[in-house]
Write a structure and sequence with these properties.
The chain is mainly alpha-helical and about 450 residues long. Helix content is about 75%, strand content about 5%. A hairpin with a 2-residue loop joins strand 4 and strand 5.
Length: about 450
């Protein structure tokens, strides 16, 4: 009986999807934009030897550059026009959000609504250009000194090569920033998150083949591979459970008389997610770490001695790197939660419409109680994210497993998939409501 009902629901959803022309256009636009992005990850920067760069990168893939290459969808290893990916844009967004808490002007813009948001976005774009140019110049200088057994990475080093590399990498980042905004506005899901998501998913098949090859050559045991598969399934289930977990605060509305009718008196819930910040904290923490480390690793051995020391201390699996990474995740969990959820505004809205939490006085006491509950939830959520994101480090250091099977990758893939599916379902529901409204209007006109 239950299976028949589920099958019927699935058929209804498929029928609704078949009729939702606007949704199909959005999905096709999203797929087309992601295909354009993937094509760009194979266009090399002018003036370099892709074979030499690939050889050099493979020798250092186990370090922090391997992690960056995951988010770049393999573009860094091939040193293509999208090598920086959207990381400078994410770093600029972090800086602007931090500035809104200390700058009265930016804080005022934030309160101005859509107009203020446009101003903040504009300055975020300016910051993206500056950061991408700085990173691009550091990478260009670093590549000039790279060489392998097959030759030098740069055929004709000099200022012209540096200039073209900076322009190419900065232009690639700005194009991806624009493409992500177009996906958000005209497609389905968050564009920037989908770009990172598609890069990770595109590299999964090669990582799987590499792992199976390690098993074939007895580099790792078949039992370990089976254990990894079980672990991946368990981590996905754990992430789904934690992302859907929420604390529901009971909210009551008193009865009031409006004319001859009694209104209100119902109970509802205020849902507080366990992980309000979502996948943002690990992405932000990774972006801040990758911004200076990328330049440091490309320049290692070519620059001052302290640069080599920093690169070694911040290498994959090193205690300092892991401490900074986990610290960044915890910080951005609390920081981003404070940005997206304001307990004082929620308490004021409840008081405005007559709602109250049983046993808590409306107003300031309600705001303090909501903040108390949200802080406790964020502590658990930050611990969950830190635990999941530590998995890659343990797998790489102990079993030499590709990073793609790590917790950070799975967290991004699962979270973005859930968010995109939720948006598709909301579009389907909106389409069904529009159909019902049209039918009711047609029936009313016939009468």
């Amino acid at each position: 009986m239950a299976s028949a009902a589920e099958q019927l629901a699935a058929n209804l959803n498929f029928g609704a999807f078949a009729k939702a022309t606007e949704l199909k256009k959005r999905i096709w636009f999203t797929l087309g934009a992601l295909i354009v992005y993937r094509l760009g990850t194979y266009i090399p920067i002018p003036g370099i030897d892709p074979v030499v760069m690939q050889d050099i990168f493979q020798q250092n893939a186990g370090g922090i550059l391997g992690m960056f290459d995951v988010f770049a969808g393999g573009a860094l290893g091939r040193m293509t026009i999208f090598a920086l990916n959207v990381m400078p844009y994410i770093s600029a967004s972090i800086i602007m959000q931090l500035m809104t808490t200390i700058s009265p002007t930016l804080e005022q813009w934030k309160k101005e609504g859509e107009q203020g948001r446009k101003k903040i976005n504009q300055y975020t774009r300016y910051g993206t250009v500056i950061l991408a140019a700085l990173q691009g110049y550091g990478i260009a200088v670093g590549m000039e000194g790279l060489q392998s057994s097959t030759g030098q990475a740069v055929a004709d080093p000099g200022y012209f090569f540096r200039f073209t590399t900076v322009v190419t990498l900065t232009g690639g980042t700005l194009f991806l920033m624009w493409l992500g905004e177009q996906i958000t506005a005209r497609g389905v899901g968050n564009g920037i998150s989908l770009i990172i998501f598609s890069g990770i998913v595109a590299e999964l098949p090669s990582a799987l083949v590499g792992t199976l090859e390690l098993g074939r050559t007895n580099a790792i045991s078949p039992a370990l591979i089976i254990g990894l598969i079980v672990m991946v399934v368990a981590v996905i289930a754990f992430i789904v459970f934690m992302e859907r977990a929420q604390r529901r605060l009971l909210v009551q509305y008193p009865k009031r008389q409006v004319g001859n009718r009694m209104m209100g008196g119902e109970n509802t819930h205020l849902p507080l997610k366990l992980n309000t910040a979502g996948v943002i904290p690990p992405i932000f923490a990774s972006s801040l770490l990758l911004m200076p480390i990328t330049v440091a690793q490309f320049s290692a051995g070519q620059g001052p001695e302290w640069l080599t020391t920093v690169t070694a201390l911040l290498g994959r699996g090193q205690p300092l790197y892991m401490l900074l990474f986990i610290g960044g995740i915890i910080f951005f969990c609390f920081f981003y939660t404070a940005i997206v959820f304001n307990p004082q505004d929620t308490a004021d809205n409840l008081k405005k419409y007559g709602g109250f939490i049983p046993g808590i006085r409306p107003g300031q006491r309600t705001a303090e109680y909501i903040d108390y509950v949200l802080t406790r939830l964020t502590v658990v959520g930050a611990g969950y994210l830190a635990l999941v994101c530590l998995l890659p480090e343990l797998l790489i250091s102990q079993f030499a497993v590709p990073f793609y099977f790590g917790g950070t990758s799975l967290l991004i893939v699962v979270s973005v998939t859930m968010d995109t599916v939720a948006q598709i379902q909301s579009h389907l529901l909106a389409h069904q409501y529009e159909g019902l409204i049209k039918k009711s209007k047609l029936r009313g006109s016939r009468r």
